[in-house]
Queue: 2 jobs
Job 1
Amino acid sequence: MQKLKRYGRLYRVLVSQFLKTILQSRVDFFIGLLGFFFTQIMGIAFLYLVFEQIPDLQGWTLDQLIFIYGFAQIPRGIDHLFTDNIWMVSWWMVIDGDFDRYMLRPMNVFFQVICEKLQPDALGELLVGMILIFLSISKGVLIVDAAHILCFFISVSAGAVIYTSIKLFFATIAFWVKQSGPFLQVAYNLADFAKYPTEIYSKGVRFLITWVIPFAFVAYLPASYFLIEKSALATIGLECLIALIFWIVAYSFFRYGISRYESAGN
Amino acid sequence: MIQVTHISKEFVSPKKYPGLKGAVKGLFSNEKVRKTAVDDISFHISEGEIVGYIGSNGAGKSTTIKMMTGILTPTTGQCLINGIDPSKNRMENAQNIGVVFGQRTQLWWDLPLSESFTILKEIYNVSEEDYKSRMDFLNEVLDLPEFFDRPVRTLSLGQRMRADLGAALIHNPKVLYLDEPTIGLDIVVKDKIRDAIRQINAQYRTTVILTTHDIGDIEELCSRIIIIDEGKKIYDGGLEELKNTYGAVRKVTMEVRRMERISEIDWENRLHANSSLFTVQTDSEKNLLTVSFDKNRIQVSDIISSVMEVSDVKDIQIQETELSEIVKAIYRHRI
Amino acid sequence: MKKFIRTYLPFASNELKRNMAYKGAFYLFTLCSLFGSFIQYYLWMAIYGSAQGAKLGSLTREEMVVYVFMSYVTSSLTMISVSRELGKDVVKGSVVMNLIKPIDYRLSLIAKGLGTMVYHFMMPGIFVWAGLEFYKWYALGLPVVNIGNLLLYVVSVIFSFFIYVLFDFCFGMIAFFTTYIFGMQMAKDALLSFLTGQLIPLSFFPEIVERLFEFLPFSSMVYTPVMIYLGKYGISELWFVLGRQLVWVVLLYLLGSLLWKQVTRRMIVLGG
């Protein structure tokens, strides 16, 4: 408990320092936000156009698809906001030896990695996600009761953990190959598949995004819990389990990777 | 304080082949290149010592330091810093040590220096009182107030090094590692840094380990040095001892008026020594006579009096072998 | 002319070599950029599966497969960013250095873009194209593309390339006013994926919007060449769309010159 409090305090101190530097460039902040906002809005416009032509997509209505799409943005945005620095580890920190400084401080290494940066661009994704979810609520496509609201928060947190675990896992490869950016990029881009119902994909793709790189558990599967009467255990429960397993695997791998760290200059 | 036992570090990298063909080949081959950067090194350092850790580029200095600080995990062997194994209890060890890497700052680049100190105070959990008394001391020895409110990126190299040194000491570490602390600094700043290190060591009995290429750092700071080459320890002992062992050779150069008479001297007899203990060189064009000798066995006065008996002497110069010469000789000897 | 080629060819060939230097894991990037096309492919298959008619937005299911992958190939050949480099040069201040060299800065950027285009043609353009044609023939039982359409497509792609780089050069001048061009790029890419027909054929839009979009230069960047490839235009239409592309090349060239003059004059006055 004492430790948790200390880390909470450290997080505030470190992040507030970072925010000070960010606030010096407010224009950049809004432009970045706008960029991510636009990208997501285009995806929605696409759905609208398509549904001009068809009544439903394999049984899913436009409103339902929009919710899935919007819901997928929330865990993605949360992860993007808080752990963006993992990208730097995979691309530059290991090869440049900048990782040294994390090893020299009396704090958890992963903690140091994530509190070095907040990515305000992610607010664009979160904004789109929230708008679409409120839109869905106002249209009455969602089941809204206490249990579902609670599950919503659990689900987006677990989803963010899955994102973070996948990023951490692929970034860790850098301790062997020095730069794992391309691997991470490929894995991360697979998340785009999860913005639509997984039924539309072939078996191979479905297997890949469900069991190998489990983005299906981040978006489509939990979203279906909010749309149709599905058991919370089979959706949100399973998502939490997957999040836990992947986190343990990724974090252990990361810990092992650190012991393999070679620094620079050899 | 520091106990290093038989540590080795091996780096393994995939073998690379040249060209496009090689890149493809590299994808499929599993050949590895092994390089032993540190090879079975052991030593013990007591509290309050200042130890110079020296060697040529690529000798394994930084690798050893990185193992002691917890950045790298040794392939075999173990180091215990104040009873803690950094590869197992990295965080606990980090609380006890301070590190300055000359070429890389640990400060927050875009923030005023004062902010960096505030953050470090939190990171190392330094109490308000301790922080105050530490800062008073550091301000005095490092003159930090001069640039305390400026962003780190605007500091000159010398200022930044002072700031980094201060930052490494804020939590009163028991051990301070300095990797090339004076690299690229001018003489005045170098003196200041050395002075600060001495004061810190005296005041808090901080154990200091420093790697450097600057012989001045060693002569002014270290009572003991460890030399490594190609990953192996080749010398460990006092500075004076090193000078006595390798630096016993002294040189006396004299400008004489009557060069032709020098050959009359019976050196072995006059110096009471076997001819293996000295060498005599003459330069008849400049009328220079140079005698190199083992200072522990032969008296300078004997040499001078022998010469003066046969000729007038216009000028005398006595040279001690410099430390840099000794170090160079040691490196060369190994190669 | 000979001198012209001698001056600018090295820019193109160096850029090509630079691209080729990336190896190993960097090929993964290529794979990555194809993901989007596969998502679209599956999505369209599901959409056609749910549709009543055989045609959506005037395209059959098979034509849509071609559209998805050819729009990928086309955009990788034509939409080559020069604004990124322009932005970098502005931030570093090396634009001024380029002003005193006896070369046209914009032409040097375009030559570099051409080098990248050649690289994209080899990696992965030609493979995706060949794969698509094979799939058409083997799995869909369709004839491969006819040679006339292919040649016209190539001509159109070259126009498209110039339209894009000339436009992007104008866009890149934003770098003189903000430092965070990454965010602007994101917004631009998102908007263009829509306006060029990358994301969805323009024929899906309501007619009035489609007209408007065709009037803008963006439809000429991807939509036009892909529709030519699909053989969707009659002879007279063909001359019209190719002519329109040419007009845009000229207009954007003139606009770029004008803006460049204004901006560099300002820069010289303000001292960079």
Job 2
Amino acid sequence: MREVGIVGIGHTKFGRLDYDLVDIMAWSSLEALKDAGIEGGIDQVFVANMGAGAVNNQTGIASALVSRIFLEPAMAETVENGPASGASAVKCGYLAIAAGMADTVLVTGGERMRETTGWKATDFVATLTHPDAEYAYGLTLPAYGGMFTRAYMERHGLTEKHLAMIAVKAHRNAEKNPFAHIEETASIDGIWDGPHREVVNPVMADPLRLYDLCPVSDGAASVVLTAMETAGRFKKKPIRIAGIGQATDTHCVFNREDLLDLKAVRLAAERAYAMAGIGPKEISLAELHDAFLILEVAESEEVGFFPKGEAKKAIERGETEIAGRIPINTSGGLKAKGHPVGATGVSQIHEIVKQLRGEAEEGRRVKNPRYGLAVNFGGFGNNVVATILAKE
Amino acid sequence: MILDELEKRLRPPARAVPSYPPKVIVLASGKPLVVRQAENDDIPILLEAIEPLVRVRKDFYDIVAARMYAELLSQYLHRTLDPYCLIGTIDGVIASIVNGRMIDEKRGMSYHTLTIHRGLRCGAHMFAAKMEHHMDVLKQEEVFIVAESYLGFKRWMIEYQLEPRPDFQHELGGVGSYALTRKLYDTYKTRLLAGTRPVPPEVLRTADTLILPDEYPQIPGFKR
């Protein structure tokens, strides 16, 4: 199999965008092509998206994107894997190049969720749960996030203050990220100790509060992949895809032996480490799928950064901050950068590339990174993709 | 002399209406948002703060800003009956403005909520303060509300579960009105209304002299 690298990246601002979905994706795609120093020559396009049909009343968006940016006759498919669609699409791009089906692939993840209300967006995402055993009873992803958080707190002694500390870190990083949805500071004095906490930071899915959850965002992110053997013809030095791992778990969370065991995260990370030939200690930074802040905590343990139940100590010691031992969610994460579901996995990889190239903004730039890990979490942990990128 | 006579005829009667007592809300950023009632002398600078937004198409800022500009100008020139305006400031900088008026002793009319400083829920806090003014300060029983923007509709009509009043024609025109009743207010007050009184004097002083915003997130690259 051929080795694959990333030679171009593009990103829109995340937030509420007044453009149609295909225009949003076209923007990041053209940015990625520009970054790669090319105008065409794309053999294959993979589009990651979850809700175009349900939310935007549009299907066939891979074909629409190709046509919008004049990439015909490139091959094109849409990849739908829930909130893990983005990393799955990158995996498809990797496979196409590694197998020799394509030399250069554009992967774009995009979503336009703010066309509808927050409640309806929550309902749409909840359609990934089991229709009879979960959805029918009103279960939503925030509800699962709340239950998971409560169980984790009881077992491992995590407190709401730990979550507030992560939120403050996420906002601090997002403030310096020009693509982030959230541009405002959050402080412990405001969201945790403040006299008006119950209104400023209300409970949304007990014990999760407003500042423990990601916003509903529009946005897109793109990467250009190519075979490492021919990557020299592009403008920038490639960032190699060193490892990809994926694993699934039961559709119904109820069927798992232990609610707190995110087995698919652990297995996906182990497979990615094995492929890259490294372990968690070699990782310089990570983008972890923190749709709810508890997921940053739990995933950081499952991928081997900290023993189970010990992440809280790392938070207290500032180990996950930009200058810490293992900076996590330097982009602001889903929590503050935003979470247009289909775009998220590609956006995480965009961030890792930016950091490995040394192009991240001052104040959130990780010092001398070598390997970056991205974990894209689908369902409530029933389909997880881990990607490791390496600076050559 | 004739001008004085005409002015008397054009100016609605000034009635003694209770003023909104200032309060402070500690925002998520940890910064205090001071909420106080605007005096007539504050209005010229508020108009200056609003004016750049009149040309912002996004999120219906243009219509909300243009209408609020006209409403505050009308208040300043004494052409509206029993109007009020509340302002929210962060370090003295105008962050959000809300206004409305009394229809009669029992009923109020909400005009607009315009937020310049976005991302800290200042608009939500100010809208709640406006409802507090009608219900707790003016002791009214219901407030009529319409929305021009999608955000406004999602935030007020849906979040407060306002009662549709299709037969009431709101002064802002458009579709039939919605109403916040005392019962709804009492239901949502604990969850949506924040603030501490009295405001410490040193904090309140920051809102004495209003400062124009240097930047508008709605207008990238704005320079005054």
